[in-house]
Write a structure and sequence with these properties.
Layout (H helix, E strand, L loop, with lengths): L13 H16 L22 H4 L8 E5 L4 E4 L2 E3 L3 H11 L8 H9 L7 H14 L6 E4 L3 E4 L4 E5 L3
Parallel strand pairs: 1-6
Antiparallel strand pairs: 1-2, 2-3, 4-5
Helix pairs in contact: 3-4, 3-5
């Protein structure tokens, strides 16, 4: 069964948050999964007299991570990172879905491909990934009581070809 709940605006109201939590609890009790997807972005309308620089996309501050998907290499500010297969897959999964929060169960199903492992497995991999990325700017943030997401100020480029 698919249930689509359109939510508008950047902030989710407390009532919508409670509804999503209740639905998630009901679905997980019946061994299902809940996936929260962000609606496709609506093209921003820029007035004709607006400055061109104001319409330009804001580039995040901090270190730049480049994910070369064809060679499965991660490069942090020009230095190759020694990521394991699962660390790379986890970072790529989160980078492809910015501003979305994932539960440990969702990450296990999507990145590991199964849900039978303990949910703390995700915590261990996130901790190791954070250590390898450095502590100056946390790229993977914890949403307490829910799961993990990519940080808003994460500067990650996904490059399909080297």
């Amino acid at each position: 069964m698919t249930l689509a709940i359109p939510l508008t605006g950047d902030a989710v109201s407390p009532q919508a948050h409670r509804l999503l939590a209740a639905v998630r609890e009901l679905v997980e009790l019946s061994k299902g999964t809940v996936t929260v997807e962000q609606a496709p972005p609506v093209a921003d309308q820029v007035p004709a007299d607006a400055d061109a620089d104001a319409a330009a996309e804001v580039v995040p501050d901090g270190p730049e991570v480049r994910l070369h998907t064809s060679s499965r290499q991660a490069v942090l500010d020009g230095v190759a990172l020694p990521l394991t297969r699962l660390e790379f897959d986890l970072l790529q999964f989160l980078a492809e879905r910015p501003r979305r929060v994932f539960t440990r169960g969702q990450l296990l199903a999507a990145v590991w491909g199964y849900e039978r492992a303990g949910e703390r497995t995700v915590d261990v991999h996130v901790r190791r990934l954070r250590l390898k990325l450095g502590g100056s700017v946390p790229l993977v943030t914890t949403v307490y009581g829910v799961g993990y997401r990519l940080a808003d100020d994460a500067n990650i480029l996904i490059l399909p070809h080297d």
